[in-house]
Amino acid sequence: MSLNLKTHTEHFTNPLYLESGRILEPYDITYETYGFLNDDKSNVVVICHALTGSHHCAGTYEGETKAGWWDGLIGPGKAIDTDKYFVICTNVIGSCFGSTGPMSPRLPHHNEYRYKFPVVTVKDMVKAQRILFDRLNIHNVHAIIGGSMGGMQALQFAVHYPKFATKIIAMATTYATQPWAIAFNKVAQESILKDPDFKQGYYDREVIKEQGLAGMAVGRMAGHISFLSHESMNKKFGREYKRTDGLYELFGKFQIESYLEYNGYNFTKWFDPLSYLYITKAINIYDLSRGFDSLEEALQKISTELHLISFSNDLLFKSSEMKELSDALTKVGNKNHYYKNIDSDYGHDAFLVELDNFKDYVTDVLNKT
Questions:
Q1: Is 94 among the domain residues?
Q2: Are residues 277 and 361 part of one domain?
Q3: Taking each helix axis from N to C terminus, what angle separates 122-135 and 149-160, rounded to the nearest 10 degrees?
Q4: Residue 56 annotated as catalytic
Q5: CA-closest candidate to residue 170, choices 191, 148, 197, 141
Q6: Beta-carbon contacts of residue 158 (< 8 Å; ≥ 6 apart)
Q7: I need a surface site. Which of 75, 193, 218, 288 has the fewest CB within 10 A?
Q8: Which residues contact 356 (CB under 8 A, 6 or more apart)?
Q9: Are 92 and 238 within one domain?
Q10: 91 and 217 inside one domain
Q11: Residue-wise pLDDT tens digits, 70-124
């Protein structure tokens, strides 16, 4: 069967009340669907994307060759089988791929929000998705799956909408963002803010798309270091030097340097810098226990079947953080959660790259009745 990829945008005129006390009104949510919804709507699987991801998690658009970011996992006959499941992935508010964000027009005068856009949280992102699903008349889903910031969203669903999903899989994530991850985000934020071409948030988006933003590229390089590990860098690059560069040229490059440059500068042409600032802020202030007296009190709300997956060499969200979450769930008497630590040298991005290490597990979770 076909993937049946469809892209949609829903417009909402009711105010979205945010955690900060501010409101977003009106707002749009762009999302993609794959597969076919069955008659009783019992086959819905929600995918939540990470920081620089989007609603485009599988398949290819006409005229393009780059597939969605989890294409190896989602599709006919794959782990998340679109012959069996109706898959929905939404672009989070604050992002730059169709949902309302800082570069969206602000009514009534239609200038971009820019810094007037309110700070949004991961909880706000999830609340907006839940409102979208109500609009689509989907009030229960079979599963929610996400990695990194997508895993944060999955956990927020578990705490704040405990009866919405039958199963939740959160991978390569944490219960609250720790100083190590905040520090890497700080480098990226400062690099953007101090770039004169950023123009204090009043840059020309077309110029940035064409020329990129050097400060943002530097920040993204720091991010890439946190996504990998010592071992994966050694395996991928070693001490290989660019063949066209001389060892004693001041600006001659090792392969790892070329990799960081290419990914850093290329990134700035397709991801908006203000969205990057707003989403890293949302990640930094993410804390499952906010609004509760303790993490344990928050976890007592969870009633869904919850699967936690960590990766042994994840430097950004260490596997010990997921183990702490699992231990806290056990402490509050939750007998419906499962923790799996996957042996991997790759680092944080293993959830995007080493699909063979966990795709069978995902299949088993989804198919188990």
A1: yes
A2: no
A3: 70
A4: no
A5: 148
A6: 144, 165, 168, 170, 301, 302, 304, 306
A7: 193
A8: none
A9: no
A10: no
A11: 999 999 999 999 999 999 999 999 999 999 999 999 988 889 999 999 999 999 9
Indicate which residue of 314, 326, 337, 344 is catalytic.
Answer: 314
CATH of the domain at 261: 1.10.1740.110
Q: Give residue 154's domain range.
A: 6-177+287-367
Q: Which DSSP helix (H) or strand (E) runs through 319?
A: helix 319-331
Same structural domain, 54 and 172: yes
> Does 88 map to a domain?
yes
320-357 pLDDT per residue, tens: 999 999 999 999 999 999 999 999 999 999 999 999 99
Residues 26 and 141 in one domain: yes
Choose, from 56, 275, 348, 349, the residue flagged as catalytic: 348
The alpha-helical segments, DSSP class H, found in 60-198 are 122-135, 149-160, 179-193
Active-site residue, 348 included: yes
Last residue of a domain, one of 266, 281, 296: 281
Residue at 1 is within a domain: no
3-state helix, strand, coil in the chain (%, to 5): 35, 20, 45
Residues 235, 345 contacting (CB under 8 angstroms): yes
Instruction: Please pick, among 104, 148, 232, 319, the residue that the annotation labels catalytic.
Output: 148
Question: Number of folded domains in the chain?
Answer: 2
Amino acid at the residue 78 = K
Nearest Cα residue to 112 out of 276, 274, 281? 274
Question: Are 59 and 116 within one domain?
Answer: yes
pTM of the model: 0.97
- Respond yes or no on whether the N-terminal peptide bond of residue 108 is cis (omega within 30° of 0): yes
Q: Is 148 a catalytic residue?
A: yes
